[in-house]
Amino acid sequence: MAGNSDPLSPRAKLAVTAGKAVAAASRAAGRGSGSVIGGRVALKLDPDLLARLAQNLDVVLVSATNGKTTTTRLIAEALGAAGPVVSNALGANMPAGITSALAGGSEARYGVIEVDEKYLAGVARDTDPKCIALLNLSRDQLDRAAETRMLAENWREGLAGSKAVIVANADDPLVVWAASSSPNVVWVAAGQMWKDDAWSCPSCGGVMQRPGEDWFCGECGFRRPTPSWALSGDHVLDPHGSAWPIHLQLPGRANKANAASSAAVAAVFGVPPQVALERMYQVQAVAGRYDVVQFMQRDLRLLLAKNPAGWLETFSLIDPPPTPVILSVNARGADGTDTSWLWDVDYTRLTGHPICVIGDRKLDLAVRLEVANQHFQVCEDLDEAVRAAPPGRIEVIANYTAFQDLRRRVGN
Amino acid sequence: MSDNSLRVVWVYPDLLSTYGDQGNVLVVERRARQRGLDVARLDVRSDQPIPTSGDIYLIGGGEDRPQRLAAERLLRDGHLFQAVNNGAIVFAVCAGYQILGHEFVNDLGQRQPGLGLLDVTTVRGTGERCVGDVLADIDAPLGLPALTGFENHQGITHLGPTARPLARVRFGKGNGTGDGTEGAYNDTVFGTYMHGPVLARNPQIADLMLKLALDVNALPPTDDRWYEALRTERIAAAQQPA
């Protein structure tokens, strides 16, 4: 099973080569990494290429609304203990980007693949994964994405016949609904701060009861499964009840949850939790996220938050007041063009922080903060916002394209 | 207004709070408090009875199945009718707007009865979803400035004789009927396709509801400079669709 011992067919080889050539041309033209365009060309020449590339790998798929890229990175790091890994580490998570990433790893034994939520069922069909990690599902870009519960339904149907071990978050009712059609599930109590997409039972529509950390539907009996793994403060509890300390350079509760899920995935491949967790410590920043950069004599920590659940987790990890906070929001295609979600974010959690708002939709943020009774300043751009803060740490929270703009400005 | 506080009821956030609908509740609360009013906010889940003594009832948008469940539970509960008879104000968005009408098409493709508090009927459109920024002129008797908002719906809502259109679109789709109408109202019951935080872009509508609830003609002024800046930006954007 391990290693790419079976040679690719001549057609598949041609497709891989053509894809790489196009990617190189795209890079040379300054159009990003070229992985997506390269993958598209390769898939056109050989539509089964993804399946062919995957057949000699032990494949892990990772999907979620939030934390996909980071968790993919943590799992890749952990499985590195057992053999060479190929991964779409830069977050190109649709079939073309995945194909391109796998084409670059002919020596690998493991393929650790982040998958966009909408494509999970199809990619699972093509790649015959050994393991699928499902972290969370919540509202995200509703003006162009499917409804959240429909995504869960789509996962549930797509995974019903899968032979993969599903590592799933027992604390997210939508994820539990999606995973529980599979015969082989490892439940992880990874927690979830955001609860507002699962007040209605995904199975019968009854009102969900949520006493403490537990949850159940009073009408149909759908309830939280008993987890075998759990995140408990700064430790991962394994199925034997042993507690393993989590040491991460990445901040926040959500990343500890990602580490717990990653440890459970690593165990599926025989990598023990202490080895997996030690290796995860090496992960510093993922595609610029959580990076601390020097800019105009300040230390900017770059935090990506794309939706209400993500903002909630991000507010919980920032330094306490009076650390200044810069918020940047755009509403371009990749962000979703509707800014309504800003009203699902609880900005009163920023009370006491000096706040500056920037980005294409800074006025939406201004009204949102005004209604939340927060003090804030509207700035023209990042430079002006940074100048408004004293030297030291600044927390910069941005949604997708706003984050890319930030990285470009600070040269990250 | 009963006793000393303004009672704001958020109807079924467990089902109808998908597109930032909490925004309307927050804006009403904030603008009432800025006028020195005490506000009692009641978030009522769909397994709880709707109180009849509220002053303003806010109903949000939602996905197709939650909409069906919300309509069933509101009809079974029945208290919203009594509240409206008591003179309460109802402001509903998107899926909530459809529920206020006589009938809509649910997630099972069936025609489902609504509350009939507005003389409107919704069918499912067969064309593309209506998605994007909207600019509309609010019905003249209400005396309000232009309506700016964001719509995202498949439904087409036809108005009957006793419902007045809330607005007429200059840009965007609104009710989707092709006659330019957007939303509907009758006395103290309002419906619109503009998403959840529509009151953040149109604080004058929030103020209209406060005036109706307090039975006054004017309110003390507030500092609306950020609302105005946002309105100016979005009105310009609606006139130049990407």
Individual helix count of chain B? 7
Label the CATH architecture of chain B. 3-Layer(aba) Sandwich
**Number of domains in the coordinates of chain A?**
2
Distance between the termini of chain B: 44 Å
| DSSP strand count of chain A | 17
Helix content of chain B: 25-40%
Biggest interface, CB < 8 A: A-B, 33 and 36 residues
In the predicted model, the low-confidence regions of chain B spanning at least 5 consecutive residues are none
> Approximately how much helix is present in the residues of chain A?
25-40%
Mean pLDDT of chain B: 95
User: CATH homologous superfamily of chain B - what is it?
Assistant: Class I glutamine amidotransferase (GATase) domain
What CATH first level of the largest domain in chain A would be assigned? Alpha Beta
Low-confidence stretches of chain A: 1-5
Q: Which fold does the CATH topology of the largest domain in chain A refer to? A: UDP-N-acetylmuramoyl-L-alanine:D-glutamate ligase
CATH C-level name of chain B: Alpha Beta
Tally of distinct domains of chain B = 1
Task: Kindly report the spatial arrangement of strands forming the biggest sheet of chain A.
Answer: 2-3-1-4-5-6-9-10-11
Quick one: overall form of chain B?
globular
Family (chain B): Belongs to the CobB/CobQ family. GatD subfamily.
Protein name (chain B): Lipid II isoglutaminyl synthase (glutamine-hydrolyzing) subunit GatD
Domain CobB/CobQ-like glutamine amidotransferase (chain B): 7-202
GO molecular function (chain B): carbon-nitrogen ligase activity on lipid II; glutaminase activity; transferase activity
